[in-house]
Design a protein that fits this description.
This protein is mainly beta. The chain contains four helices and 19 strands. It has two domains: about 10-140 and about 290-295, Diaminopimelate Epimerase, Chain A, domain 1 (Roll), CATH 3.10.310; about 140-275, Diaminopimelate Epimerase, Chain A, domain 1, CATH 3.10.310. The strands form two sheets. Strands 5, 6, 7, 8, 9, 10, 11, 12, 13, 14, 15, 16, 17 and 18 form a 14-stranded mixed beta sheet that branches. A five-stranded mixed beta sheet has the order 4-3-2-1-19, with helices on both faces. α1 (about 40-45) links the parallel β2 and β3.
Length: about 300
């Protein structure tokens, strides 16, 4: 029987399409690492006109089956994440939730008690919640050495003059920019990458954020913000899980002493929640598997079919 991520003799590839708050991915099940996943194949799969369409490709593979899994137990599930442009990325928060839903279905993994997965950004723990929601332990974060809350400057289409930003590392690099109004947020042109100064050596995801107040729910104070994001290697996306974490970290830092540790983040594709626990964050939100199919990849395939 053909495995979901494997190639048959007709060079077709079985895939699943999924999304987390409309941050969408093409998912491949390739437990033994038999698929030669190349940048060309990733770009084709993510192409919204010629391929399947997605912000990235996620392969479910055992850590021992690929070089990037070195340092992890060989039996650990590895989230092999690729951006739409064919580059790899350290981590994807929305992708980790969708990956968890995919593992539940394809591998029969029990996630109620939590499961540690491997990523290029290090180990992460995914846990199934209720009603199709998942929590992802996002690991430790670091903010820039900022004077006055900022350590960089960002230029973007529709944004004049350039604005100060705070760098936040949550396993991958981010720069967060505070804006004054929803109107200013909506007027941004993110069809081109924002320009960050000083230039980050490995590129950066850039988030723009507007405060939306807060509330007390179930006895817990919660902040609320709205954001848009331009993701390194993918362009503007409908949501970004690591970006939501970076936004919560930055806004809490700017708010000062007494600011909430729980933040509801409005993104174009819905809402996620970020909990800040000391030097770590937990991301909560939905994951949806929407379609399964087979795609002809013979014209981009460079490896011998298995």
């Amino acid at each position: 029987m053909r495995q979901p991520g494997s190639l048959d003799r007709m060079s077709t590839l079985r895939f699943t399409k999924g999304h987390g708050t409309e941050n969408d991915f093409v998912l491949l099940f390739d437990e033994r690492g038999e698929l030669d996943l190349t940048p060309e194949l990733v770009r084709f799969l993510c192409d919204r006109r010629a391929g399947i369409g997605g912000d990235g490709v996620i392969r479910a593979v055992r850590a021992g089956a690929l070089a990037a899994g070195g340092g992890h137990d060989a039996r650990t599930w590895f989230m092999d994440y690729w951006n739409a442009d064919g580059s790899t990325s350290e981590m994807c928060g929305n992708g980790a939730r969708v990956f968890a839903a995919f593992l539940e279905r394809e591998a029969g993994v029990e996630l109620r008690g939590g499961l540690t997965i491997a990523t290029r950004g290090g180990p992460r723990t995914v846990t199934a919640l209720d009603e199709g929601r998942f929590a992802v332990g996002m690991g430790e974060f670091r903010t820039g050495d900022a004077g006055g809350g900022f350590d960089a400057e960002v230029e973007a289409g529709g944004l004049t003059p350039p604005r100060p930003a705070l760098s936040v590392d949550v396993g991958n690099p981010h720069h967060v920019v505070a804006l004054s109004s929803v109107a200013e947020l909506e007027s941004l042109d993110l069809t081109a990458p924002p320009r960050v100064t000083p230039v980050p050596p490995a590129g950066s995801n850039v988030e723009f954020v507007v405060a939306r107040g807060g509330e007390i729910r179930d006895g817990i104070e919660r902040g609320r913000v709205r954001m848009r994001v331009h993701e390194r290697g993918s362009g503007e996306t409908r949501s970004c899980g690591t970006g939501a974490c970076a936004v919560a970290i930055a806004v809490r830092a700017w708010a000062g002493k007494g600011a909430p540790d729980v933040w509801d983040i409005e993104v174009p594709g819905g809402m996620v929640t970020v909990r800040i626990l000391g030097s770590r964050t937990v991301l909560e939100g939905p994951a949806v598997l929407v379609a399964d199919g087979d795609v002809d990849v013979s014209h981009v395939l460079t490896a011998t079919p298995v």
